[in-house]
Amino acid sequence: MFTVPLQEAWQGPTQFIHVTPGRSYRVSGYIRLHNDDNKGQSVQSHTYQAAAVRGSLRVANGWASVSGIFSVPDREIESVRIYFEGPSPDVSFEVDDASVEEVGASGSWRNVTQHVIETVRKSDIHFNVTLASNVNAGDVQIHVLQTRKSFPFGTGTSTLYLDPTKKAYSDFLNRHFNWVWPGNELKWYATEPQQGSKNYEPALNMIRELQKHGIQMRGHCLLWSDGNYVQSWVKALSKDDLLAAVYHHVYETLNITKGLIDIWDVNNEILHGHWYQDTLQDPDFNIKLYRMFTTTTPASGFSSTRRCLVQAYLEQALKFKAANVGLSALGAQGRFPQEQEPDPDVIKFFSYPTNVAAHK
């Protein structure tokens, strides 16, 4: 389907669909731009919420996949309309091979999970004990107490962790988690809200206290690609001054937190946010940023996102791998809508192997 320039970005191809309350659906399709206003374009597939987002699209990308999952609230639904929103109204684009399919209806996850519990989590542990000759084995009792988790299990926190009136909260966090990331305290707008006015102490105080309890730290985040969270003084910089400020901020933050952060979110939400790329007019900005980062610190860097962008994330990973930016690992996280309980089948769906296929 070919779409000519629109009056509004939301007036893309649309169709009413039938859905079942409480169920989840995968939406997918392919987009090809005919022009791009010389900047990255964002395309979203919507129902009552963003179901799939693909950012930083250019004509040079050719056909690009857009896919994601949306969950329907478990209540009466009058109608559902799915539509493609974006790019800019004066950009022409094509949509092809669009589809919506239900996921998570089988409930098969429960049998698989129960099998893992029985065969792995409940598997036997064998201890070899050597007793002195004068000790009767029947008089010996062995007590096993788990003190730490061997696998990373983390959460976000804030300076609330240091509030002496919230000790129950900090005790709970110390007891149940072995990885933590500061929610906002390390973001650029928090450490330097005004140019030259810097304050890392709230983040550093929290990190040092957490590390007293053996908790490892994930740094979040050096940059945030969503323009809504870029400081006004940063937006006022020229391109040359902006690039210099970005590099200075990254180097300075890595130096201040050296030895305190185990892994970094280098640039947050870069799948649907592309303020830096557009402002600098450099579609390869992220690749250059990550390459600079990995030559500065041995820690792995990855970007996090709030949306269901598994296919786009995979394609981005392959692009970064081909560019040899030096990443040793990728991370993924998910958030759940307020009206929908987490669906294990949907989570399992994302763990299945995904192929990036060519579309012509």
Automatic annotation (TrEMBL):
It comes from the Eukaryota. InterPro entries: CenC_carb-bd (IPR003305), Galactose-bd-like_sf (IPR008979), GH (IPR017853), GH10 (IPR044846), GH10_dom (IPR001000). The keyword Hydrolase applies. One of its GO terms (molecular function) is endo-1,4-beta-xylanase activity. Residues 146-360 form the GH10 domain. Keywords: Carbohydrate metabolism, Hydrolase, Polysaccharide degradation, Repeat. Signal peptide: none annotated. GO terms for biological process: polysaccharide catabolic process. SUPFAM superfamilies: (Trans)glycosidases, Galactose-binding domain-like. Belongs to the glycosyl hydrolase 10 (cellulase F) family. PANTHER family: ENDO-1,4-BETA-XYLANASE 1, GLYCOSYL HYDROLASE. This is GH10 domain-containing protein. It comes from Pomacea canaliculata (Golden apple snail).
